[in-house]
Design a protein that fits this description.
Blueprint: H1 8-18, E1 25-26, H2 29-43, E2 47-50, E3 77-83, E4 86-97, E5 100-107, E6 112-119, E7 131-132, H3 148-166, H4 228-231, E8 265-266, E9 272-273, E10 307-308, E11 311-312
Antiparallel strand pairs: 1-7, 2-3, 3-4, 4-5, 5-6, 8-9, 10-11
């Protein structure tokens, strides 16, 4: 298998060879990153034809940079290229934006563009610059970058975001295109987002497993069975009579008393069983809005008007139903002296 032409050590060695003989100085971290971009394009056989937007195309032998490539007083570094596998001209700009570097590229004749934005100090060491390769006592250029792994990360993003957009399917021995999954992140790993807390769940009915919201062991009464005792005076002792699907309705004849089943279902000790929305449990869901002033269905006392020693506790009008009629309404005007 051929060696990787974009290996970090190979790129650093090539970078020293493309600096001009009379100007081997990298003045800033921005110059270090721009020179690395040009080195990667050179390793993939892009031919340098100019380092500005106005000069006529002129190929530079071995892609060596001109003497004034970083001394024109401009912050941006411009590289114009051609490639044997394309008839287009490519313009690559390395632009300094504060502490970030924007790499923007375009295929001039087709308006095919690409860009990459990175944090400069994620890849280069600011304290290393300025760097003059002509001096014999200077440290190795590799120390101008954070590490070999960070060079690899940067080149992976350059391939994915720039080179593969300009020339898809570029053929070069030792070159393999990147994929979104295999490419490294150009910057530090983003912080994991903390999921927002789940909204509070509404209170469930007291007995969610029972469609009638009744306590375990208590079956609902069939309202159509009320009065059956008047039709069955023998109390259901007929052996040929099929059993009822509902519990017996004792005391449900024509004589209506306080214990008659029409006044609500009762559980142990005669305690009335109410549904979760008030009334007798037969209201539809949310039949009584929360907080509404709502008289429970039936004459039995509500939770705020309990009985006392088996007798209803009376209250002012509107305080809830009692066993007697509920006089919620005031008498009509003048009704008090209608017999006078």
């Amino acid at each position: 298998m051929a060696n990787n032409v974009l290996d970090p050590s190979a790129l650093v060695g090539l970078l020293l060879n493309i600096l001009p003989p009379t100007n081997k100085t990298l003045t800033s971290p921005h110059d270090g990153l721009a020179a690395l971009v040009h080195t990667a394009f050179s390793a993939l056989s892009f031919r340098l034809i100019a380092t500005d937007d106005t000069s006529s195309a002129k190929e530079h032998p071995n892609n060596v940079l001109p003497d004034d490539w970083n001394t024109k007083g401009l912050v941006d570094r411009t590289f114009r290229y051609r490639h044997d596998q394309s008839g287009l001209e490519f313009v690559v700009k390395v632009i300094k934006l504060g502490q970030r570097t924007l790499i923007s590229a375009i295929a001039v004749e087709s308006d095919k563009s690409a860009s990459l934005d990175v944090a400069t100090n994620d890849f280069v060491s600011p304290s290393f610059y300025p760097y003059d390769a002509a001096k014999s006592d200077t440290p190795p250029l590799v120390h101008g970058f954070i590490s070999s792994n960070r060079i690899t990360d940067f080149i992976s993003q350059l391939k994915l975001k720039i080179i593969q957009k300009l020339i898809p399917g570029l053929r070069k021995e030792g070159y393999i295109e990147e994929t979104e999954d295999s490419s490294s992140n150009a910057g530090p790993a983003p912080r994991a987002e903390i999921p927002p807390p789940a909204p509070p769940r509404p209170d469930s009915p007291p007995y969610p497993d029972d469609p009638y919201f009744l306590p375990p062991g208590l079956r609902p009464r069939n309202p159509l069975e009320i009065g059956r005792q008047d039709l069955d005076p023998f109390g259901g002792i007929n052996p040929f009579q099929p059993p009822s699907l509902f519990p017996g309705n004792g005391g449900d004849g024509m004589f209506v008393g306080p214990g008659h089943p029409i006044f609500g279902m009762r559980g142990n000790r005669g305690q009335e069983m109410r549904g979760p929305w008030g009334g007798d449990g037969y209201l539809p869901p949310m039949g009584a809005p929360p907080g509404a002033r709502f008289d429970p269905i039936g004459p039995n006392p509500g939770p705020f008007n309990p009985s006392f020693n088996g007798r209803p506790r009376r209250g002012p009008p509107g305080s809830g139903n009692v066993r007697d009629p509920d006089n919620d309404e005031f008498m009509p005007p003048g009704a008090g002296d209608m017999f006078m």
